[in-house]
């Protein structure tokens, strides 16, 4: 079956090779989120960071400014006003291999209709699942707007 919503991911000017999709499917248990991205930063050293935070943000645009290429994506989607990492938009991290990552997760934190028009952000660093308000996951390196299909 085709997804019910899809975000086309594109990288910032600093990470132009970053691209991919985040697809959203309804399931009896919640929403299945499938992510496939390429062009993630590849570390120079063997034990360098290959884990990237990923979140749904409340903003409806991937535009930004000189300091933050995706500033208009806003903050994490958090309609319940929960602490991080219990925001509705907090997703599992992406574990990259050679700059590519694929992930599938089943969540009951939101319905597809609730996130259409919101943005998906991929960060340069991993989410520590502790720091408030957003996990200290660093620069926003890629973004996509969730569109209903």
Characterise the protein shown here.
The protein has 149 residues and is mainly β. The protein has one helix spanning 112-115; strands spanning 5-11, 19-27, 30-38, 51-52, 54-57, 94-95, 101-107, 119-123, 140-148. The strands form 2 sheets. A 7-stranded antiparallel sheet has the order 5-8-9-1-2-3-7. A two-stranded antiparallel ribbon has the order 4-6.
- From the spread of the alpha carbons, the general shape counts as globular
Spatial gap, N to C terminus: 12 Å
* Rg calculated over all Cα atoms: 14 Å
Strand tally is 9
Provide the residue-averaged pLDDT. 94
Strand content: 35-45%
**Order of helical and strand elements:** EEEEEEEHEE
| Structural category | mainly beta
Q: pLDDT below 50 for ≥5 consecutive residues: which ranges?
A: none
Biggest beta sheet summary:
7 strands, antiparallel
What is this structure's SSE topology?
Elements (H helix, E strand, L loop, with lengths): L4 E7 L7 E9 L2 E9 L12 E2 L1 E4 L36 E2 L5 E7 L4 H4 L3 E5 L16 E9 L1
Antiparallel strand pairs: 1-2, 1-9, 2-3, 3-7, 4-6, 5-8, 8-9
Primary descriptors:
mainly beta; seven-stranded antiparallel beta sheet; about 150 residues; two-stranded antiparallel ribbon
Summarize the structure.
Helix content is 3%, strand content 36%.
